[in-house]
Write a structure and sequence with these properties.
single chain; 12 strands; Glucose Oxidase, domain 1; globular; 49% helix; alpha+beta
């Protein structure tokens, strides 16, 4: 591409002066650097709006650090996918950019190919048994994290019980440092487990797509998507439990009346506890709360999103709507039967077109693999990014509470303003001052001022419009996971460039992935902030940087979904297919050129979004 068709290199980006000092928040290995500039400038980088759509708090960045290692190693060193390498990350102006690393030399591809066949197909053939083992060990890790003991406060004097009959030999000063080291190790191990089969789930989908395209030239992406829709997976269970609780409430009028009130969740719980039927209903909620309410109100990637279990207003608002809809005779559950019947019909029709036994076997083998292992994409998601992350955030807040109690930090959540290498310094500062005795100071003033400065930097970063890409886009974007998960293709990058060169009012048609079939027209609701999801009204079309499976309760009332980023295997695409909604993902610029209230037409069969009328 000519220079006119490139994004700035990282070194050419001019940051707002309000972001001065942003680099201090992140470890040096996560920054663009002069010593790696030649390698970095050979690659095309793009903003990861799936995993990091907002400026990154330093401690929240640990998940990104962990997945960079884990995703990449399972591709390059474990399952040895021949041409694929890892996905590298860099921070710039508090936003995360990623790139698919260029393919390895031909001789390395050959070495990997020998291992790939044996390792990958073993997993495909034994996946059901392997999933059971995976879930058992992952839940055990989560329970270990839940049971981790973190000192709540520092005693003035060690109690006698730690002296007699023999001194224990260590104190709370050691325990708090050890506990933080332990929880860091646990979260890294969790993310090692996270990618154990995920790349293979995407690979199974890629293999099926490739087989379908060869056998049925011209087949639409949305049709292929329908062939794999209709999965009973863990990520949809929280929403299913909300539906069940809503039906239980609808069967008990006094409970239903309380749930329909426009009052906070804690007030509803108070009223429910005052009546017999309400106490029974609460008992059922408490029974399923862990794990099914351990679901993020957003993506699970940021501490400030909260989860249903600690932001009960969110699930209660969903149930309020469900009870009202049930009283009108509406169906609130995902129509899994209809989706499955449509899937089976389409698969049968296409199988009937196959002319040879060999081709039929190729199709059936690829289909069996994708239907078996593709569930992992959403099954594991609940357990890692929602259940375990909810536990992690609450445990980290216990460290924050201790630091606040001892005047090292001002607010509990200020701990998230320090990265995983810095938090041990705060804990050591606290432990040292306690050990030194009465009146020994910590550097609390220094840490509090640093936290306040970083909060201002992050606020400024939210207002800054970061470039969607960095460097020279390749002539063709072909790395499979970049295309299928993030939805970054040659055409999409061209759309980004168009969006950066053209006034948004002049763009009336946007192209993306035809991720879920169907056509819908209606008013747009642009969700640039997480909390805006509660503003969605029946009949609107959701337009967001990316959607999230935890937003499943709104998918039964919207008409369609449009995202900036995400391919055929992104969560937005999966959830839309599971709810039978038209969806176009990976548009690159939808949230920039569409405004709330615009009338838009979404064609999930062609991947085109048309702005019919602007507000």
């Amino acid at each position: 591409m000519a220079d006119a068709k490139k994004f700035p290199y990282a070194s050419e980006v001019v940051l707002p002066p309000e972001l001065e000092g942003w680099e201090e928040m992140y470890p040096p290995q996560r920054l663009f650097s002069k010593d790696r500039e030649a390698w970095e400038n050979k690659h095309f980088w793009y903003q990861d709006k799936i995993h990091a759509p907002e400026p990154m708090y330093p401690l929240d960045d640990i998940f990104q650090e962990a997945w960079q290692i884990s995703l990449s190693q399972f591709t390059t060193r474990v399952f040895c996918i021949p041409p694929a390498q890892g996905v590298a990350q860099r921070m710039l102006g508090c936003y995360m950019y990623i790139t698919a690393v260029e393919p390895p030399p031909p001789e390395v591809i050959g070495e990997k190919a020998e291992r790939f066949q044996k390792r990958v197909f073993y997993v495909f053939e034994n996946y059901d048994a392997l999933w059971d083992k995976w879930l058992t060990k992952f839940q055990a890790l989560g329970r270990e994290m839940e049971s981790l003991k973190i000192p709540k406060e520092f005693d003035k004097y060690v109690p006698d019980s730690e002296i007699f009959p023999a001194p224990r030999g260590y104190t709370q000063a050691y325990e708090i440092i050890e506990a933080f080291n332990t929880i860091i190790s646990q979260i890294f191990k969790a993310w090692q487990y996270h990618f154990e089969y995920l790349n293979l789930a995407y690979l199974g989908y890629l293999m099926f797509v490739d087989t379908a395209r060869k056998l049925f030239p011209g087949i639409k992406e949305s049709t292929i998507g329908k062939m794999v829709a209709g999965a009973e997976v863990s990520m949809f269970r929280p929403e299913e439990e909300l539906c069940r609780l809503s039906r239980l409430a609808a069967g008990q009028p006094p409970v239903a009346e309380i749930l329909k009130k426009n009052i906070p969740a804690d007030k509803k719980m108070e009223e429910l506890r005052s009546i017999d039927a309400g106490r029974v209903w609460i008992g059922e909620l408490e029974r399923i709360k862990n794990p099914w309410f351990f679901v993020s109100c957003g993506s699970g990637w940021y501490h400030f999103e909260g989860s249903w279990t600690n932001k009960m207003d969110v699930p209660f608002s969903y149930m309020q709507s469900y009870v009202q809809r049930l009283e009108k005779g509406e169906k609130i559950e995902r129509s899994l039967t209809a989706i499955s019947e449509e899937r089976d019909r389409i698969v049968s029709e296409y199988k009937a077109l196959i002319k040879t036994d060999d081709d039929r076997k190729s199709f059936e083998d690829a289909y069996k693999v994708v239907r078996t292992i593709y569930r992992y994409a959403e099954d594991h998601l609940f357990w890692v990014e929602h259940w375990l992350h909810t536990i992690w955030f609450e445990k980290i807040r216990e460290f924050g509470d201790v630091l606040v109690k001892n005047n090292v930090l001002k607010k509990t959540d200020d701990i998230f303003l320090f990265n995983r290498f810095e938090v041990p310094m705060l804990l050591e500062d606290l432990a040292t001052a306690w050990a030194l005795g009465e009146g020994a100071p910590t550097r609390g003033k220094f840490w509090m001022e640093k936290a306040a400065k970083r909060e201002k930097i992050l606020d400024a970063a939210r207002k800054w419009m970061a470039a969607p890409g960095l460097g020279v886009p390749p002539e063709e974007v072909s790395e499979p996971f970049t295309v299928m998960l993030w939805g970054v293709t040659t055409d999409k990058v061209a759309e980004w460039l168009k969006g950066s060169e053209t006034a948004s009012k002049d763009v009336n048609e946007i192209k993306g992935f035809a991720s879920s079939a169907g056509v819908a027209e209606g008013p747009a609701r642009v969700l640039k902030l997480l909390e805006d999801v509660v503003k969605l009204e029946a009949g609107e079309i959701m337009v967001a940087p990316c959607t999230n499976p935890s937003w499943a309760p709104v998918f039964t009332k919207i008409k369609a979904a449009v995202t900036d980023i995400g391919g055929l295997t992104s969560h937005a695409a999966i959830v839309s297919r599971e709810y039978g909604l038209p969806s176009v993902t990976g548009t690159g610029i939808a949230t920039s050129v569409i405004k709330t209230g615009d009338i838009i037409k979404v064609d999930g069969s062609t991947g085109v979004v048309t702005i019919v009328k602007r507000v």
